[in-house]
Amino acid sequence: MTQRNRVTYLAASWCLSYPDQELMGRIPLIRRALAEFPGLDRPFNDVLQELTTVPLEESQARYVQEFDLSRRHALHLSYWTDGDTRRRGEVLAGFKQVYRDSGMLVDLHGELPDYLPMVLEFAATVDLDAGRKVLTDYRASLEMLRLALLEDNLPQAAVLQSVCDSLPGKSPTDRQEIMKMAGYGPPTESVGLDPYDPRLLPLAGGQQ
């Protein structure tokens, strides 16, 4: 189960990242790794199929539209729980502390530390237990994102479902259940969310 989770998280990290030539070169590796576990490839097939059949520039434009320009599909975990409130700075510091505690250098590449592909790659390649704890703590964020992707009929919804299925408990069926899981309502204070550069891909490794 440990190795299955690592493969799930790394494949999910890459499939939720901005599609570029580096990602395209990783697709055969992703397929081989997923094939080692019966049935694990199913949630990823639609994303991988789209990446291999749609022109790269078109895939990039879709990604920017759906994930960079739309808060509805925000890939930053604390955005779903804290929005753009002042409390979020403290929350982001907590993510950075998790990375520091691992004893490894996690290169943020200009990204916020709660960027989901980065958290997933950290769990897969640096500290599985610590990464899973973050994912579990932010399960409500994952479920809100999953539901938004599902409602908009985006193939990444199945990728999010695979991540949620790796965590304890069943996925909620609607937003009311998700908010109940989170234990509080949505944040109301907003100070503005700066757009981030979709070309930045998170990498983990090295001594801090």
Automatic annotation (TrEMBL):
The keyword Transit peptide does not apply. It holds the Pfam family Nitrate_red_del. InterPro entries: DMSO/NO3_reduct_chaperone, NO3_reductase_chaperone_NarJ, TorD-like_sf. Transmembrane segments: none annotated. Keywords: Nitrate assimilation. This is Nitrate reductase molybdenum cofactor assembly chaperone. It comes from Arthrobacter sulfonylureivorans. The gene is narJ.
